[in-house]
Amino acid sequence: MRKVVLVTGANSGIGLALCERLLAHDGQIQLCLACRNMQRAEAARLALLASHPESQVALLQLDVGSVRSVFQAAKEVKLRYNRLDYIYLNAGIMPNPQLDIKAFFKGLFSSNVINMFATAEGILTQKDNINSDGMQEVFATNLFGHYLLVRELEPLLCQPDSISQVIWTSSSNARRSAFSLEDIQHQQGTEPYSSSKYASDLVSVALNRRHNHQGLYSSVICPGLVMTNMTYGILPSFFWSLIMPIMWLIRIFTNTFTLTPYNGAEALFWLSLQKPESLDPLAKYHSLTSGLGKNYTQPHKVSEETQYLISSSLTQPQQKRNYIKLTPGLQ
Ligand SMILES: NC(=O)C1=CN([C@@H]2O[C@H](COP(=O)(O)OP(=O)(O)OC[C@H]3O[C@@H](n4cnc5c(N)ncnc54)[C@H](OP(=O)(O)O)[C@@H]3O)[C@@H](O)[C@H]2O)C=CC1
Ligand SMILES: CC(C)CCC[C@@H](C)[C@H]1CC[C@H]2C3=CC[C@H]4[C@H](C)C(=O)CC[C@]4(C)[C@H]3CC[C@]12C
Questions:
Q1: ipTM of the complex model
Q2: What are the TM regions of this chain, as residue ranges (predicted)?
């Protein structure tokens, strides 16, 4: 049977590289590129068909940052397919990133330098926007739209006698300290990206608790530092090209500088080959690239503090209400 795979944010960067890798491995899959811009989506489809002319690549209009668009797209998916084997929740944004140069140089000469390069802890903030649904844009795009999509597609993902995988592109920038259950949209802070990725890690665990018995398994990955439109928004592309030799050097020490979208997609691709029952629901799977350019995937257990938060809070009714109290239109 042809597996059905849906990828959000599939028209560029890590999402597009993942599609390329999935088709190279199995040309029989039914691939659905879920993108907000249909011109960019069509360009991606043509590029994929150029290297895999026999493959089945469909397009789906989806703006994950819009509640209406998510409902419409989910309706369309339910009309087109009667099963969904993999759903990659990969679309993501980091608007108006600000690099704290002073903190960066301070970190460079501290014992925390490797961690700083791997996670950007303490050196990166963003300025968020309000979207047309009246929600914080980063939360709505990186987390909430994807969560709604999974909820809407439950009938396809939880088919009797079949297994499905939900795979989130999270980040090692996800940090407990950036996230608050009292402010899940991160209206108050300056690290909405970190907060949204941490929230996706939590939601993934919650999805496993709720749906494993129905054959739905959720995992999170970190692609490492990858040169894409997102990172070109932090520093211009010519600057990244200029410092590329330094980046290769740093890769010897961290392995998290995967740098190319192909390498960054490693953990996403690797997960598609695993038996989901054998995966650790409390792990984040990292794409890593060694100094010699070898790709591999490594699980990192979530922190004890996170495990505590999951077991003490996520299942309590008060927190459940917080998820519903998002926006007046959704109550
Ligand atoms: N690059 C990196 O170093 C890292 C990236 N990540 C994560 O990887 C994922 C992919 O990002 P990456 O490939 O780097 O960057 P890109 O900017 O290349 O890709 C992001 C993709 O998401 C899409 N997207 C953004 N907003 C929406 C929306 N509202 N609805 C639908 N699609 C949308 C973009 O579409 P469009 O072309 O229309 O903008 C694009 O296809 C993100 O979740 C990011 O957080 C995680 C860790 C590190
Ligand atoms: C000499 C150079 C290496 C200087 C570059 C400094 C910074 C611009 C970058 C250093 C660490 C980078 C990041 C780390 C983690 C990424 C994370 C996993 C993610 O999800 C998005 C991108 C990162 C935050 C990335 C961004 C650039 C750095 C801060």
A1: 0.98
A2: 230-250
